[in-house]
Amino acid sequence: MTEPAAAVRVHDLWKSFGRQTAVAGIELALPAGRFIGLVGPNGAGKTTTLSMVTGLLRPDRGTVQVAGHDVWADPAAVKARIGVLPEGLRLFERLSGRELLGYTGRLRGLPGAEVDKRAGQLLDVLDLASAQHKLVVDYSTGMRKKIGLAAALLHNPEVLFLDEPFEGVDPVSAQTIRGVLERFTRSGATVVFSSHVMELVESLCDWVAVMAAGQIRAQGPLADVRGSAGSLQEAFLELVGAQGRADGGTLDWLGNQPGTPA
Ligand SMILES: Nc1ncnc2c1ncn2[C@@H]1O[C@H](COP(=O)(O)OP(=O)(O)OP(=O)(O)O)[C@@H](O)[C@H]1O
């Protein structure tokens, strides 16, 4: 059987900040056409990995291929094929949502009429049509995520990378984003997103990579990574070795109010 095409291939990838090793020689092969979750505790190295994979941060060592092109040898080819919603995303805030999409689409080299059509459709689907003429600086967190997502999707990328796309997003907007992403992967495109929220990853993703302390602890189809554990959350705690700390451990002073029987 031939191997399925990989959307992302990472080989021996390293990154340190001073004496802190953020990413320690990881290997990843993320299959195309899947909804992929990159999960890990705070400081695991997820953002650093996604930044290197999307060409925003130069690795100390190692190679990354996205959609068959080397990110650092052929950055233009990769950037034409990917969409990115980075963490703490910076947008051109003095533009309205509609203007931001118009500008992004033209930067991507799309014809004006096509940009207008796609922008209108994305604004509708993401429930931003009524706010399209408002400046982005006045958008709420959830609205910023949605306009960022629209900008990342406008050129119909092959692979979409999202760093914590649901953080600070209310359940209604989360459902809207989810619907758009599911439709996108059904069409054969790949979504790679990072999250701490295991239930979300479990309900959305069919493929997962678990990261801790700069290393990949497991990767594969969701059912394989979950294994015999009851949930992805349980499998995750086992993989990152966090079970012992789950009950607060040594915080014996916490909650013991004076006069309350122990
Ligand atoms: N620019 C930087 N300078 C110094 N250290 C950094 C920098 N960026 C990341 N680090 C360190 O690298 C490690 C990995 O950080 P990273 O942000 O990649 O983790 P993460 O898995 O995305 O965490 P979180 O889920 O909390 O966002 C952390 O120890 C962090 O302090």
TrEMBL record:
Q: Write down the CDD domains for this protein, in alphabetical order.
A: ABC_DR_subfamily_A (cd03230)
- Sorted alphabetically, which InterPro entries does this protein's record hold? AAA+_ATPase (IPR003593), ABC_transporter-like_ATP-bd (IPR003439), ABC_transporter_ATP-binding (IPR050763), P-loop_NTPase (IPR027417)
Source organism, top-level taxon: Bacteria
* SMART domains for the chain: AAA (SM00382)
GO molecular function list: ATP binding; ATP hydrolysis activity
Which species does this protein come from? Streptomyces tabacisoli
The record gives the membrane topology as:
Peripheral membrane protein
What is this protein's name?
Answer: ABC transporter ATP-binding protein
* Location of the protein in the cell: Cell membrane
Domain spans labelled ABC transporter: 8-238
Q: Name one GO cellular component term.
A: plasma membrane
SUPFAM superfamilies found in the cross-reference section? P-loop containing nucleoside triphosphate hydrolases (SSF52540)
